[in-house]
Specification:
The complex is a heterodimer. Chain A is an alpha/beta fold. Chain A has 10 helices and 10 strands. In chain A, α6 packs parallel to α7. Chain B has one domain. Chain B is built from 9 helices and no strands. The radius of gyration of chain B is 22 Å and the shape is globular. The chains are: A alpha/beta, B mainly alpha.
Chain lengths: 269, 264
């Protein structure tokens, strides 16, 4: 295994306005080919963490390194080039309403990679097969699909151009347990077959243990525990134990949670 | 928080508002700069531009046409009545033509577009922001300014002059219809008077205004939609702000351009 992590957050800080920082000196890394899941309560900065790594948000301080190269100072074009190495499955799938399923999947191929539409459509259909959504859905629009189907299309869009790093933002939120498990299985399968590095955020612990090789817990803008996915239940960390048990009693106080939740209204753009 | 004496609190409020205004002007200017930059440099998204041209231009034709015909007709009646006070009813065709081409055609077409297009743009882009579709664009190596903003700006700048030209023709026709059908004007003489009187600059100055108004309409829709926050309520707020700010800026730009053109 290479000594240089595939992706690393080094001393990353982020605050919105004058409020309490969402991230305070975040240090975290993930090795190439590994799947890291970040867990934590609502408003703890999980989304901000992956949005910073995906180049959607700039940190106030610190570095984000991909293969040892800092990406924070990249300009518009540099960021778009960087994005070509990444894929992302959004919480609500974030499919483009005005485009059909196959056009959504082939979006990057057509608009950024300038692949001919015919070839792009073929690759989109293959991606639909990979996420086990029939080709008969290719010409439908996102509004005609269920939440689970939209997630599959979002996953197909994220993997179609074989990214080096994939981000999964709450991949099972809003799905029934059966669909959620199916999505988890697809994520594991796709990440393995692509051999890519994956970073996911979730507060679904079953999902975290299924898709992650490692799990890190984010609390008050910093990592308070990190370990193998199968050790989540015996971490020996008070924050993790409380989170796993879902108890009201413990170091994660309702007051701290409320303070965080209020930050979610801040514009991250 | 620092304590400010009560007597100075109004000063602080004024200062805060002024700073807020400067911040907004700066933010809109930076946004416009990025939009223009994306508009004048490759790559362009021709499909998006085509879609916007149809949405902004073609689908606005009925509302602009109806506004123009009724405005032309009402203008003809008013000028006829007003002119009658000093026996100058016969100048009605010329005044209708001048009023429509230089002022009412571009301004009314722009206001109709502010209501129809600016609001639609703000709602669409605001909803895209709320559902992370704009973030998704970036993760798909696509610059949102090139894919979303530039085509809308370009389409509005191209289409509003064409809509204005249509409004000019329909508005003058509205005046002609009233003059001929209810005021006993001779149809041929009315048209000849209009044609002989109009100078090309009357029409061109209106079209230049329309291009500027088109930019304003699209810019306000894009800016407020792009910066929408707070879910559905935020999208609603963005829509309202887009329409109101577009309308105000259209009137302000109209005055500035008119004074510029009349000093020419």
């Amino acid at each position: 295994m290479s000594a240089i992590p595939k992706l690393e957050w080094r001393g990353v800080e982020k605050r919105f306005g004058t409020k309490t920082p969402v991230l305070r000196h975040l240090d975290l890394s993930v090795a190439a080919g590994r799947s890291l899941v970040i867990i934590g309560g609502s408003g703890q900065g999980k989304s901000v963490t992956i949005k910073i790594a995906a180049g959607l948000m700039r940190p106030d301080a610190g570095q984000v390194l991909i293969d040892g190269q800092d990406i924070v100072g990249l300009n518009g074009r540099g960021r778009l080039r960087l994005a070509a190495r990444m894929g992302m499955l959004f919480q609500g799938a974030a499919l483009f309403d005005s485009l059909s399923v196959w056009e959504n999947i082939a979006f990057r191929l057509i608009n950024a990679d300038h692949v001919p539409r015919k070839v792009a459509k073929m690759r989109a259909l293959e991606a639909l097969d990979r996420v086990r959504l029939g080709r008969q859905y290719a010409d439908l629009y996102p509004s005609e699909l269920s939440g689970g189907m939209q997630k599959r299309v979002g996953l197909a869009r994220a993997v179609v151009s074989n990214p080096e790093i994939i981000f999964f933002d709450e991949p099972t939120t809003g799905l029934d347990p059966i669909t959620g498990r199916a999505i988890n299985a697809l994520i594991v399968e796709q990440v393995k077959s692509l051999g890519c590095t994956a970073v996911s955020i979730t507060h679904d612990l079953e999902s975290a243990q299924t898709i992650g090789d490692e799990i890190a817990m984010l609390q008050d803008g910093a990592i308070v525990w990190r370990g193998p996915a199968d050790q989540l239940d015996r971490s020996g960390n008070a924050y993790v134990d409380q989170f796993v048990r879902g108890d009201a009693e413990g170091p994660i106080t309702p007051r701290a949670r409320l303070a965080r939740v209020s930050l979610r209204d801040s514009n991250p753009a | 928080m620092s304590s400010v004496p009560i007597a100075l609190q109004p000063v602080r409020a004024v200062g805060r508002s002024f700073l807020g205004l400067l911040h907004t002007i700066g933010a809109v200017s930076a946004f416009a700069g990025r939009g223009i930059g994306a508009m004048v440099t490759a790559p362009w998204f021709a499909g998006q531009l085509g879609r916007q041209i149809i949405g902004i231009g073609y689908f606005s034709l009925p509302v602009v046409g109806l506004t123009a015909v009724f405005t032309g007709a009402a203008l003809a009646l008013n000028i006829y009545t007003g002119g009658g006070r000093f026996n100058a009813e016969q100048i009605m065709p010329q005044i209708v033509a001048l009023g429509i081409t230089r002022e009412l055609g571009p301004v009314l077409a722009a206001l109709m577009l502010a209501g129809r297009v600016s609001a639609a743009i703000a709602a669409e882009i605001g909803a895209m922001r709320a559902t992370e579709q704009i973030d998704a664009l970036q993760t798909l190596s696509t610059d949102p300014y090139r894919y979303l903003i530039a085509p809308r700006l370009m389409a509005a700048i191209l289409m509003l002059p064409l809509l204005t030209l249509t409004a000019d023709i329909i508005g003058i026709s509205g005046g002609w219809l009233v003059a001929v059908k209810t005021l006993d004007f001779n149809p041929t003489v009315y048209i000849r008077n209009t044609w002989d009187f109009l100078q090309s600059w009357d029409v061109i100055s209106g079209l230049i205004k329309a291009a500027v108004f088109g930019f304003i309409v699209a810019l306000m829709g894009c800016y407020h939609g792009f910066n929408a926050t707070g879910g559905a309520r935020g999208v609603g707020r963005a829509t309202t702000h887009a329409v109101v700010s577009a309308a105000i800026l259209i009137f302000a730009a109209d005055y500035l351009l008119t004074s510029l053109f009349t000093h020419k």
